[in-house]
Design a protein that fits this description.
With 254 residues, the protein is of the alpha/beta class. It contains eight helices and seven strands, in the order ααβααββαβαβαβαβ. It has a seven-stranded mixed sheet with strand order 3-2-1-4-5-6-7.
Length: 254
């Protein structure tokens, strides 16, 4: 790809990102009385929320240096989020891992309560099931925001993988892709994909709306610092703001 083509491609990615951060309003007529737990949680911290699901491939091909670098990156992510005066109370993190099973490692918590997990790699790559799980979690979290009268920004789902779906029915994965596209078109979620070495970028490109990015080597620390700084910018934005993001120096656009 020519240099000018790469710059144009990044401009398109950046534009689609910037348009994604207008705070969403609660859906009228759907809010119910919040549970006692929700009422306490949001009374203690009524700040607008920036939810982000980390959707992480922990299949066997991630064993060794890749999973170790990913775990280190998660610790860097938490540390960098805590440097910002606003993000710790506004950014919410959930972690979902996927191999032969899909595991909600961490349900949504604000960054000041996030404890980076230590992940292990094994099994196949049930990516379709993981996507469904992440989208379901986002939908349920938004219901809780609405019930509690808490405003929120469009959620991010940030998937990191070194492969493609494996061990799943084709139709099930296709349904996951259709859900991504529907939620993107209707501005319900911003779904990003980062491919580690070995990832099938052409396949992933067909699965999602936004152009997948390939990680340079095992630059997970750089990736998660960029993600943290992006969350900083979103958390500090106001309604109607466009949020310019820095080009990802950790990535290659193919």
């Amino acid at each position: 790809m020519l240099r000018d083509d790469k710059n144009l491609l990044w401009d398109n990615i950046q534009k689609s990102v910037a348009q994604g951060f207008e705070p969403e309003a609660a859906e009228e007529g759907k809010a119910k009385r919040p549970s006692l737990e929700q009422a306490v949680e949001f009374a203690e911290n009524p700040e607008p929320r920036c939810p982000c699901v980390l959707l992480l491939d922990t299949s066997a091909s991630m064993q060794g240096e890749p999973i170790a670098a990913l775990n280190e990156g998660l610790r860097t992510f938490q540390q960098d989020l805590m440097k910002d005066p606003v993000a710790p109370k506004r950014v919410e993190i959930a972690v979902v891992s996927f191999n032969s099973e899909v595991t909600v490692v961490q349900d949504f918590v604000t960054a000041d309560r996030f404890e980076p997990p230590t992940l292990a790699a094994q099994g196949l790559t049930h990516m379709g099931a993981a996507v469904h799980t992440a989208l379901d979690m986002v939908q349920q979290r938004k219901i809780k925001y609405n019930e509690s009268g808490v405003s929120y920004y469009r959620p991010w789902i940030f998937m990191i993988t070194d492969g493609r779906p494996q061990g799943e029915m084709y139709d099930f994965v296709t349904e996951a892709s259709l859900r991504i596209r529907d939620d993107e078109v209707n501005r319900r979620v911003a779904f990003f994909v980062v491919g580690v070495e070995g990832a099938d970028i052409p396949y992933l490109r067909e699965m999602v709306v936004r152009v997948p990015l390939r990680l340079k080597g095992l630059s997970f620390n750089e990736l998660f610092v960029w993600l943290s700084r992006s969350m900083h910018a979103v958390a500090q934005s106001k309604e109607g703001d466009e949020v310019p993001l820095e080009p990802p120096g950790w990535a290659v656009i193919e």
